[in-house]
């Protein structure tokens, strides 16, 4: 999506907030700057009020004719994930190069590492969500990306019976980010979902009696 900034005043230069630890660096220089609480912002033609990570309204800093805002204040409005890598003193914006398995952030009573239950089509996925209960039911679990990632690549398979409705929902806003179905004949299906700024995800499937939902947690990943 092509997103444009409309900014009253100088060029926009985005800095990460101090809470991320940037003030711990050794190469800092003191400067004299000014806060401009009168400056207004628009995102795609709509008014935008910059806020810090705690929701408090902030004013831009003016220094040498340039306008500075925290990265974290605008990343959500632009739909870009942001994270600070303290070890390497690096700001990470958008989709990451390497995928991060969702296993560490998954929570469910149907999660299992039992070798008798983690194998699908001859491949052992080691750690899976596997709802093979009886009866027509809802099969669901939670993920906690904590706003650190741009994309979720979620794998899932229907076993025994087709799954007519499968969805991924932002747990805080109840907005469904993906709605689809999973047929047994499709095998392992991969869903690509934009999760920028999302803290918690609700994964749900309507499963028929005799059917199961299989989600590998080792090959599903964030980026």
UniProtKB/TrEMBL annotation:
Keyword annotations from UniProtKB, A to Z: Signal
Keyword Signal: yes
Residues annotated as domain Copper amine oxidase-like N-terminal: 58-93
Pfam families according to UniProt: Cu_amine_oxidN1
SUPFAM superfamilies for this protein: Copper amine oxidase, domain N (SSF55383)
Signal sequence bounds: 1-24
Listed InterPro entries: Cu_amine_oxidase-like_N, Mao_N_sf
Protein name in UniProt: Copper amine oxidase-like N-terminal domain-containing protein
Native organism taxonomy: Bacteria, Bacillati, Bacillota, Bacilli, Bacillales
């Amino acid at each position: 999506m092509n997103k444009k900034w409309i900014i009253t005043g100088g060029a926009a230069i985005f800095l990460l907030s101090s809470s991320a630890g940037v003030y711990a660096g050794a190469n800092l220089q003191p400067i004299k700057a000014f806060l401009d609480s009168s400056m207004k912002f628009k995102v795609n033609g709509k008014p935008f009020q910059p806020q810090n990570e705690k929701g408090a309204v902030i004013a831009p800093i003016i220094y040498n004719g340039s306008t500075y805002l925290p990265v974290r204040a605008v990343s959500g409005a632009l739909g870009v994930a942001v994270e600070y890598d303290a070890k390497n003193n690096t700001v990470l914006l958008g989709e990451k190069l390497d995928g991060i398995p969702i296993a560490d952030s998954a929570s469910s009573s149907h999660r299992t590492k039992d070798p008798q239950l983690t194998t699908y089509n001859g491949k052992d996925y080691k750690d899976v969500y596997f709802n093979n209960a009886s009866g027509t039911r809802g099969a669901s679990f939670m993920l906690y990306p904590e706003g650190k990632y741009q994309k979720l690549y979620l794998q899932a398979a229907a076993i025994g019976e087709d799954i007519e409705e499968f969805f991924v929902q932002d747990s805080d806003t109840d907005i469904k980010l993906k709605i689809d179905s999973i047929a047994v004949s499709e095998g392992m299906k991969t869903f690509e979902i934009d999760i920028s700024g999302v803290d918690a995800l609700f994964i749900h499937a309507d499963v028929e009696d005799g059917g199961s939902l299989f989600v590998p947690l080792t090959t599903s990943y964030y980026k």
